[in-house]
Amino acid sequence: MQRQIFTEEHDAFRETVRTFLAKEVLPHYEQWEKDGIVSREVWLAAGRQGLLGFAVPEEYGGGGTTDFRHSAVLAEEFTRAGAPGLALGLHNDVIGPYLTGLATEEQKRRWLPGFCSGEIITAIAMTEPGAGSDLQGIRTTAEDKGDHWLLNGSKTFISNGILADLVIVVAKTTAEGGAKGLSLIVVERGADGFERGRNLDKIGQKSQDTAELFFNDVCVPKENLLGERDGAFIHLMTNLAQERMGIAVAGIAAAEYLLEITTQYVKEREAFGRPLSTLQHIRFEIAEMATECAVTRAFLDRCIVDHSDGKLDAVHASMAKWWATELQKRVADRCLQLHGGYGYMTEYRVAKAFTDGRIQTIYGGTTEIMKEIIGRSLLA
Question: For residue 265, what are the CA distances in angstroms to 4, 171, 259?
């Protein structure tokens, strides 16, 4: 079905993203995978190309648009290119809204120009060794010392953790913590007591630096509080819908691309003297995946438009996230199976998509958490 949500402006932007990928990303990606991290230079190149800070006002160096379709284009093209390690979506769509929506004027002038140029790489630190999706379990503390916050604790699975120059840390600012006692504290590179642990070894997305972070009596200036004191829970809930939409967009794009390359593969690959595509079971597999992708695409495109118009709620974002990522997981598994032994070889895109995409049903809120959010909304 012909997609109808993009304009000529979006089509031109898609070509810009493809050119950027071809020139600045794909020639270096294999080395980044070996290194376990991308270069800082590619972030600067992304800034020069206008791929950072779409929603940041122009006065701070951004694009000045809240049209989520630009983010959708970026996610789709990076997914099709097989380059999830350069986490521009995390920077733009997850962390960006905290800075544009919660920062004071002084904070905006201090951080946003570098955010848009690629000189300041960002991360958000929520997950802890004992607290993942459950924010009630956060133990990291920020104690009010009058003229500064004293930050202590640790975080894990933090994307951009090694490269990040600015980390938004979720910490307890009351003894109880939980929904009414968490705040967002911004820690900058070089702060005494802020240490980075291992660049974690993952099964996929090898070039995406994912780290442990440690905070040992870190003195954070009072002016680095982001948003309201004890208001982090509401701030987080407000911005999670966009994060989940970005993950969902990548999920359906991955499923569609895997279907595309697998359809071509079964036409060319022969078994028992004839192409695999002549076998009824293969045709049924392709038919089922194509239908599931088409139905999911229709729903996702509606969600993209609604989000661009400011109308998408957390429940539908959760629906989009769990459905698209679970579809991606199923399609990746089925397409790998249809590739046979070749599907298990890392030189084939289907193998890499299988491992790179497995995290999709976990980060940004697990499938189980998405179902809980949806169920509560219907049964409250």
Answer: 29, 50, 10
DSSP-derived 3-state class of residue 116: helix
Instruction: Determine which one of 243, 256, 285, 347 is catalytic.
Output: 243
In terms of pTM, does the model score above 0.85? yes
How would you label 111-144 residue by residue, b for 16+ Cβ within 10 Å and e otherwise?
A: bbbbbbbbebbbbbbbbbeebbbebeebebbbee
Whether 270 is a known active-site residue: answer no
Condensed to tens digits (0 to 9), the pLDDT of residues 235-271 reads 998 888 999 999 999 999 999 999 999 999 999 999 8
- The single-letter code of the amino acid at 152 is N
Tokens 């093209």, residue located: 77
- The span from the CA of 304 to the CA of 302, in Å, is 5
Residue 28 in contact with residue 39, Cβ under 8 Å? yes
Q: Are strands 225-226 and 182-188 parallel, antiparallel or unpaired?
A: antiparallel
pLDDT in tens, 363-378: 999 999 999 999 999 9
The closest alpha carbon to 185, from 173, 177, 194, 193, belongs to 173
| Alpha helix segments (H runs only) across 210-348 | 232-268, 280-308, 314-339
Q: How far, in Å, CA of 363 to CA of 368, rounded?
A: 11
Q: CA–CA separation, 69 vs 93, rounded Å?
A: 11
CA distance 50 to 28: 20
